[in-house]
Specification:
Elements (H helix, E strand, L loop, with lengths): L2 H7 L7 E5 L1 H10 L6 H11 L3 E5 L9 H10 L4 E5 L3 H10 L3 E4 L19 H13 L3 E6 L3 H10 L3 E5 L1 H8 L3 H20 L3 E5 L7 H5 L4 E6 L1 H10 L1 H23 L1
Parallel strand pairs: 1-2, 1-8, 2-3, 3-4, 4-5, 5-6, 6-7, 7-8
Bound molecules: pyridoxine-5'-phosphate (PXP).
Length: 265
């Protein structure tokens, strides 16, 4: 293969958006009750610092984001809201009532600390199909949070989703643990999954566990057009401030993306 053919493959399919997940602003608020720190204020700061969207996960147990947060985020923020939720009737009613710009269906277990793996859309096809259909009919952009697995991606497409968000947690964990072999294996899986999903006509997003150390790789996947990042940004806000953490993340995303363009050029 010639260098120029290689280069063409590396063109990004579109600009890379940053969705800032504000769940853990609410986690800190809820630790004491009351209203501080307010996720709405965090969303406004995120908008000013360069976020392209706000993401919030309304969990069944309401451990962080509350129903009233969703209402104010929909009504008082100019950025598009990406509502993460489990495929339950209660959450569907809430999504249909508030009409967020986008909905991302995620798996949810009560005991987990965070979303531990992707949604098993292959096993859950029959349960998920009416959720994807009704959310899509309501005008929401429907995303499925899945592992980088060929069968999951094929079923996501068959379900009629607009988007797949690739779970990058295993890659981030491997890198954090210094397991280079596992990190390279996860990188390969993610590269193949992004190519497959884009080839199927799905919009490709990525998220979970991203940090300043891992965001460049995710940004350099040409098919990925959105990253959703939360926990690290809220943690880093303690040290450098929320706006500065977002601006630094944005810079690193741009640097990751620029490696593609320079390879292509
Ligand atoms: N994307 C999805 C679908 C998620 O469930 C989460 C966690 O709520 C994230 C992205 C953000 O992950 P993190 O908080 O680790 O950045």
């Amino acid at each position: 293969m010639t260098a120029s053919k290689n280069a063409q493959k590396q063109q990004p399919v579109g600009p890379l958006r940053l969705g800032v997940n504000i769940d853990h602003v609410a986690t800190i608020r809820n630790a004491r009750g009351g209203r501080h720190p307010d996720p709405l204020r965090a969303a406004r700061i995120a908008a000013e610092a360069g976020a392209d969207g706000i993401t919030a996960h309304l969990r069944e147990d309401r451990r962080h984001i509350a129903d009233s947060d969703i209402e104010s985020l929909v009504n008082e923020i100019d950025l598009p809201l990406n509502l993460e939720m489990a495929a339950t009737d209660e959450m569907l009613d809430i999504a249909l009532r508030h009409r967020p710009h986008a909905v991302c269906l995620v798996p949810e277990k009560r005991q987990e600390l965070t979303t531990e793996g992707g949604l098993d859309v292959a096993a859950g096809h029959n349960h998920l199909a009416p959720f994807v259909r009704q959310l899509g009919d309501s005008g929401a952009r429907v995303s499925l949070f899945v592992d980088a697995d060929p069968v999951q991606l094929a079923v996501a497409k068959a379900l009629g989703a607009d988007v797949v968000e690739l779970h990058v947690g295993a890659y981030c964990d491997a890198l954090a643990e210094g397991d280079e072999l596992a990190a390279r294996r996860e990188e390969d899986r993610l590269r193949h999954a992004a190519i497959q999903a884009h080839g199927l006509g799905l919009e490709v997003h990525a998220g979970h566990g991203l940090s300043f150390d891992t965001v460049k790789f995710a940004s350099a996947l040409p098919e990925v057009v959105e990253l959703n990042i939360g926990h690290f940004l809220v943690g880093e806000a303690i040290f450098i401030g929320f706006a500065e953490a977002i601006r630094t993340m944005r810079t690193l995303m741009d640097e990751g993306r620029a490696t593609l363009e320079s390879e292509a050029g």
